[in-house]
Amino acid sequence: MKRITLQIFLMAVFLTGTSFGQTNPNKENLDQDRAAVLRILESYKEALQNLTTEGTLELFAEDSEVFESGGVEGTYQHYLDHHIGPELGHFNSFRFSDYTIEVKVELPFAFTTESYVYTIGLKSENGGEGKTISRKGVATAILKKTDGEWKIVKMHNSSRNNGKN
Question: Which residues does UniProt assign to the signal peptide (predicted)?
Fold first, then answer.
């Protein structure tokens, strides 16, 4: 009888996907992970709106990959040095509106989709009024939790004309 009880118990453990020494994420832990992922993306968005890249390198994994509008930008460090960093110096403003985000956590990964309208105020090259660009954008990101810390490992951004240029 004890052997049958033990077999039933072990089968129940196997079928529920749990095992000794392993913890399943509960709703509270998933909510905390979701909030942490949202903070990472919010920090990135706030930095861009403040026309800075300060503190953004720490949001990305060292071997991250960035893709933008059909181009492979390389690691975030490369993107920072050769694209977004220098580009921000030509802006008077960078604002997001109509922003929505979806986050799906499936440990150790999180998958996000952001949609928005961004409006960039460009600096004038000849002292006149600068140009304003408004575009609809979407971004997807994959984040990975390693040693309790979330980092962006892949990010893809694309945009199209918003009809307001």
Answer: 1-21
